[in-house]
Fold:
Amino acid sequence: MPTHAYDRLSFLDNSFLMMETPTSPMHVTGRATFESGPLRTADGGIDIDKIRDYVASRLHLIPRYRQRLAYVPMKNPPVWVDDEHFNIDYHVRHIALPRPGDERQLKRLAARVTAQHLDRQKPLWEIWILEGLANPAHFVMISKIHHCMVDGVSSVDLLKVLLKPEPTDAFDSAPPWIPSPAPSRWDLVSDVLGRFARLPIEIARSFSQSVQEARDPDSGIRASLNVLRQTLGSGMRGVSDTPLNQRIGPHRRLDWLTMDLDTVKGVKKRLGGTLNDVVLATVAGALRRFLQRRGVDVAPLDFRVMAPVSVRTEQERGTLGNRISAWMVPMPLGEPDPIRRLEKIREATEHLKHSKQALSAAVLTQVAEWTPSTLLSLGARLAVRVLPFNLVVTNVPGPQQPLYMLGARMVDNFGFIPLIDSLCLGVVLFSYAGKLCWGFTGEWDLLPDLHDFVGDIEASFRELSDAPERMEIRDARMELDVRLLAAVLRRAAIRDRVALEGNRHPVAEGPRQHRRAARSKSAVAGGKASLLEGTLDVANPRGPR
Structure:
C-alpha cells in the first residue's frame, strides 16, 4: 500500500507565504559570477545541459527542491508534498544579454527576474544561467528561492551542496526520482482533526510544569516571558516616516558593491565592536547622507533597522526551513561623528545581546504555532501594516575558501531580500573568499537614486576607515585629563595661599583642632603628590610606570 509523505510548514515558513502580495513576491534572490572554465562551449557559450544534469544529480541531498505546496482544507497551513511532474528544464533556465552586455543591462535584467513571482503549483525555486557578459570568460547565475523554504544561513548550507571547494567537473548521474504519493484531501483533514483532538491533552500535560517553571525566577520560561514582554512593548512603538518607507509597487531595482573583508575587519580591530557593528555604523552613515540629500531633517528621526539573527543550532545546519529571529537596532542618524555613531550602535547591540531579544522573537514564533491559520493570516497582514522598523539589514557569513561548480570558480555572490508593504530598500551582506558582498534591493519608482545610496555606503565606510585609532582617541582623552588635573592643581595652590594668609592671623585652637588641621595639610600634600604622579603617567601613557 502506498505511503503518503508530507511535511507541515512551520509558523514562520507559512508567514512568508501569507505576506506575499501582487506587489511583494517573497523569494530571496542570489546573483553569483562564475569563471566559465570547463563549462565554456566551443562557440563561446555555456554548457547548460551539463549544468542541468549536475543540479539534478544533487537534488536528492535537498529533497525540498522537488516538493510543491498542497493546501489543507479548513484553512490550515499548507504542507510539502513530492512533485510528481518535476521537470529540471523548467527550474534551470538559460538566457543571454545582447553581447557585450554591460553592468547596467545585467542589473536591469536581474531586477526584472527578481520582480516575477514563483509559481506556487511547482517547487518554489528557479536558477537562471546568464551569458553574453562583457567579459566572455564569465557567466552569471541568478537563483530564486522562496523565503518559506530557506533562511539566509540555511541557504549558505545549500551552497555547500551545489558547490565544491575543489575544481572538479566529474559527478555521478542523478538517481532515479520516485516521488511519494501525495496525500488525499481526506488524509489531510484526518491529520488536522487528529491534531485538534490532541491539543487539549498536550496543553494539560505541559500546563502544570510550565506554571511551576514560570514561578521560578531562574527558569528558562520566566526569562522567555520577560524578554517577550520587553519585545512586545518595544515593537508597539511606531517608527518615523521617511522616503524609504512608502507603499511599494511591483517593480524592482538591484545594485551591488564589493569590499575587501580584511579591510573591514581592520576597521573593526582599530575602532572596536564586531563586524556587524561596523556594517550597521556604515549603513547609518549612508542613511544620514542619503536622507539629508533628500531634504530630511535626520536629528529627530526614530529610525530602526531589523537585523535578522540566526537561532539555528549546529545540529540543524544543513536542514531547510527558517530558523531566524531578529534584533531591532536604533540608528543614530542625528550623530554627525562616525566614531560616536559606531559607539552608539555598539552600545545598542551589546544591550540586545544581554536582553536576549532574539530569544523572545523565537518564543513568539513558537507561541504562534498554536494559532489557527485564519487568525494567523490576519495577524500577518496587520503586522506588515505597522512595521516596527524602517529597514532590513542582514549579514550572512559565507565560506571563505573559493568554491567551484563543475570546475567553474565562483568569483562573487550577492543576495537580495524581498520588499514588503512600506519597505522600499533592503540590504544583504554576504562574506565570501575574502570579500564582503553588498546586495541592495530597491523599489523601482521610489528609489530611482539607488546607485547614490550605494555611493553613500562607500563614503560612509571611508569615514570609518579614515577615523583615528582607538589609542589615538584614548590619547586625546588623556590630554583632556591632564588639563583637568592641571586645573585641580591650580585650585589646590589657591587654597594653599589662602591657608598661608590665614596662618599670618592665627586663631586660638585647641589640641583637637590642631590635630585635624595637621591631618588636613598632610592629606592635601599627599593628594598633590598623587595628582602630580598621575599627571606624569597620563602625559606619557606609553612610557614606563
